Amino acid sequence: MVAPYRIRPAAKGGIHKVNDDPKKLDDAYIRMLGPGGDKMLGDDVKWLAVTHKSFDHGKRGFNDRLAYLGMCAYS
């Protein structure tokens, strides 16, 4: 359903494309963690670590729990 008129103005930033290419994600982990960085985590955890809770309304999981565990590990 779409309202007959917008209450808020349209966003100025345009449409943001969501990355779904596993090669791009692996390259980011290699740049961040060095050679073999893409092999340190399973595919599901790699995607979970970069997923915001607003993506797909949180149905697939998101990174808040990982951030909490990271804070526990360093405190």
Which helices and strands, and how do they pair?
Elements: H1 22-33, H2 43-49, H3 64-74
**Over all CA atoms, what is the radius of gyration?**
17 Å
User: Which residues sit in consecutive blocks of at least 5 with pLDDT less than 50?
Assistant: none
Q: What is the averaged pLDDT score?
A: 76
What pattern of helices and strands is seen along the backbone? HHH
Into which percentage range does the β-strand content fall? under 5%
The helix content is 40-55%
Number of beta strands: 0
User: Helix tally?
Assistant: 3
Distance between the termini: 46 Å
Largest sheet: none
Category from helices, strands and their pairing: mainly alpha
The structural domain count equals: 1
Instruction: Please state the overall shape, judged from the principal axes of the Cα atoms.
Output: elongated
Explain briefly what this protein structure is.
With 75 residues, the chain is mostly helical. 40% of the residues lie in helices and 0% in strands.
What does this 3D model show about the protein?
By secondary structure, the chain is mainly alpha-helical. It has one domain. Helices cover 40% and strands 0% of the residues. It is built from 3 helices and no strands. The chain has helices at residues 22-33, 43-49, 64-74. The longest helix is centred in the middle third of the chain and has 12 residues, at 22-33. The mean pLDDT is 76.
